[in-house]
Amino acid sequence: xDNSTAQDxxxxxxxxxxxxxxxxxxxxxxxxxxxxxxxxPNEPGIAGVTVTLTGTDVANGSVSRTAVTGxxxxxTFSALPPGTYTxxxxxPAAYADGGDRAGTAGGTVSNDRVSGVALVAGQTATGYTFxxxxxxxxxxxxxxxxDLNGVRTVxxxxxxxxxxxxxxTLTGTDxxxxxxxLV
Length: 183
Hints:
Blueprint lengths: L22 E9 L18 E8 L4 E7 L5 E7 L2 E7 L6 E6 L6 E3 L2 E7 L4 E10 L50
């Protein structure tokens, strides 16, 4: 027999781990009660709104993701490869369109969309907001003003009752047709 022993070949190569740092993008959909496009302390988030992120990563791969806003109106896209993205909102049916804002990584704002958002490795992009406006309402009361004082009297000897069957028409310009009217 052969007295040689098998030896391990110690020519192995140790590879350094490849670190792939990702980015994230987050924002908010909210009810813009005062119409200024910025969230104030009493302006609630809107839950259940679909937000879509599309784009191309640095390796030229397509990226497409969706998120749904939480109870507080926030959404987050995490573990994004570096690249250039567009974030867009599906308009909530019960709201009128409001102002939109690009966040900390910039981008070009158009209706319900922020495009050209360039994310680099490790970046946390925040502040991508979509402001919405709850429909306003106008209420009133039609009555015969017996004492001609402009205030409806409901009790006393001469109560001023409502008059039924009157058609009320509201005319004017809405904020979408006249953005300068938002106060």
